[in-house]
Amino acid sequence: CEFVALQVYTSCLSTRPSPERSDRKKELLRDDGPDLQDFISGELSEKSKWAEYKGTLKRQKGERLRLPPWLKTEIPIGKNYNRLKNTLRDLNLHTVCEEARCPNIGECWGGGEYATATATIMLMGDTCTRGCRFCSVKTARQPPPLDPDEPYNTAKAIAAWGLDYVVLTSVDRDDIADGGAEHFAKTVTNLKERNPQILVECLTPDFRGDLAAVEKIALSGLDVYAHNVETVRELQRHVRDPRANFDQSLSVLKHAKKVKPTVLTKTSIMLGLGETDQQIVSTMTGLREAEVDCLTLGQYMQPTKRHLKVEEYVTPERFAHWEKVGSDMGFTYTASGPLVRSSYKAGEFFLKNLLKKRETEAAE
């Protein structure tokens, strides 16, 4: 799952706390991770001052790292944001944007730089059967049963929004025989029936390595098949639920490409968990050998004190380095930056245009 949970509360979007409230938030921050005000841009977030930052970037034993300035961001909110949020409430739908408290929510929901509104819908409820050590999504052995109306309601909501590009993801549902693959596929089918022009990305679980489930979604009519390896191979057991592993995730991406060669495959890696440069290169090499097309790299953030600590805040310059490495390796697209997430808006803009180009070439 992709839930790199940043502790950002959208209910605070237009408010500035009082000094007393700020003090209380600083106290909470030590226990529960960063909140909205720690990400909203301020004096320290100005790019011209990044080089002057003297804070510690690598964690020493017993220490807790402070949030560096490049992890502060403006949260642009507009009419489209409010419209999407209200529709979600009316139809009882969940988004990763909210559940994972992503700082890019305003840019994606509001349309951002490219005026291409995007949302990431989380299917099959808000409770996962797995317990990855980086993720803030709720867990349970037996989550509530699936909502049979969800595929229809999801398609209805997205049609009402007028989105250009939608990402469908889900919690892991190991309690269901096919992991929810049929439910996933029905949602894609409903979407394409209502709006054949919309581009659909599916960010799926690993389905316990069940390739029949992978195939069902890959052939459902989607445009991008995404599944996240989350971290380098060497840190898999430390970071992810024991039921997940690198080779199993790689098999998902390989099989999606095998059964539908024209599909774009995509994955994501978090940095700042203690990985080495050599491990990053090795992991990226393995992904390219599996013919993965698109890669995103972003900063891991500790959502609460119960989750893995941040071992290092990677600088924007270092993220730029990894973007160049990805490009040199032959990834069709590499998005790499502190606030980049697997459903990052700028990447979707690129993918949309890439898919349109392929469509035009195929018609010629």
UniProtKB/TrEMBL annotation:
Alphabetical list of InterPro entries matching this protein: Aldolase_TIM, Elp3/MiaA/NifB-like_rSAM, LIAS_N, Lipoyl_synth, rSAM, rSAM_sf
Residue span(s) of domain Radical SAM core: 113-332
GO CC terms in record: mitochondrion
Names of required cofactors: [4Fe-4S] cluster
Binding site for [4Fe-4S] cluster 2: C128, C132, C135
Key words of the record: 4Fe-4S, Iron, Iron-sulfur, Metal-binding, Mitochondrion, S-adenosyl-L-methionine, Transferase
Entry binding sites for [4Fe-4S] cluster 1: C97, C102, C108, S343
SMART domains in alphabetical order: Elp3
Pathway: Protein modification; protein lipoylation via endogenous pathway; protein N(6)-(lipoyl)lysine from octanoyl-[acyl-carrier-protein]: step 2/2
Catalytic activity field: [[Fe-S] cluster scaffold protein carrying a second [4Fe-4S](2+) cluster] + N(6)-octanoyl-L-lysyl-[protein] + 2 oxidized [2Fe-2S]-[ferredoxin] + 2 S-adenosyl-L-methionine + 4 H(+) = [[Fe-S] cluster scaffold protein] + N(6)-[(R)-dihydrolipoyl]-L-lysyl-[protein] + 4 Fe(3+) + 2 hydrogen sulfide + 2 5'-deoxyadenosine + 2 L-methionine + 2 reduced [2Fe-2S]-[ferredoxin]
Matching HAMAP family: Lipoyl_synth (MF_00206)
Family recorded in the similarity comment: Belongs to the radical SAM superfamily. Lipoyl synthase family.
This protein's name: Lipoyl synthase, mitochondrial
Species: Astatotilapia calliptera (Eastern happy)
